[in-house]
Write a structure and sequence with these properties.
It contains eight helices and no strands. The chain is mainly alpha-helical. The chain has one domain. α6 packs across α7.
Length: 215
């Protein structure tokens, strides 16, 4: 493995670790997490699965669906599929911050904001590694290619659908989910600028999907 390739993998896993840390902060706050994590948390509520295992299994299902649709996962996609869930479970198992949801509102809101920042920074790091997109973005591109619908429309419908499903299962939806929805875009843009991450202007759906901010 070349030095450049090794640095790319190190950057990928550092980004995934920070992404998971941001997710865990949202969970600890008790104020809500991103739509996909609401689904993962909902699955945890109604099954014996941990949050991390639920995250991994959803990722496996998405990769299988997109592979059937003709989109081959990159190595970063597979790492994303597994690592975020494992990292999240490891952090949750430490018990650090476990009493955060019993505190007053200001520190809990601060935890949500910090979580959004960590997810944004992690996204910029792992996307900048150039090793492949997340499984959720692969699904978005597969649906868009099959239906010829705009990517933005497909993304919005997917987010709304998984949020509704996760909420019905008892997932952690709340004001934090709203903060995530409105804050993640600007936060990721800022992180991209700070880390000088550049993406292709026109992603090629046939070869490599554009990486996403949502694992």
């Amino acid at each position: 493995m070349t030095r450049g390739r090794a640095l790319a993998w190190a950057r990928l896993f550092a980004g995934l670790w920070l992404f998971a840390a941001g997710v865990v902060l949202g969970l600890r706050s008790g104020l809500g997490v991103s739509p996909w994590d609401v689904l993962h948390d909902g699955i945890r509520q109604v099954s014996p699965l941990s949050f991390g295992v639920a995250t991994v299994l959803v990722g496996v299902a998405l990769v299988a669906v997109t592979l059937a649709a003709g989109i081959r996962p990159g190595p970063g996609t597979l790492a994303n599929m597994v690592a975020i869930g494992l990292f999240a479970d490891a952090m949750l198992a430490t018990g650090i911050g476990g009493d955060l949801d019993t505190r007053s509102l200001p520190p809990r809101l601060l935890a949500v904001v910090a979580g959004v920042g960590l997810v944004a920074l992690g996204s910029a790091l792992y996307i900048g590694a150039g090793l492949g997109s997340g499984p959720r973005d692969s699904l978005m591109l597969a649906i868009s290619a099959r239906t010829r619908a705009r990517v933005g429309v497909v993304r919005a419908l997917l987010e709304a659908s998984v949020l509704a499903a996760g909420w019905l299962l008892g997932g952690a939806a709340g004001v934090g989910t709203v903060l995530y929805a409105f804050g993640i875009g600007p936060a990721v843009e800022l992180a991209f600028r700070l880390l000088r991450v550049e993406l292709p202007r026109r992603p090629d759906h046939r070869r490599r999907e554009r990486p996403c901010v949502e694992c």
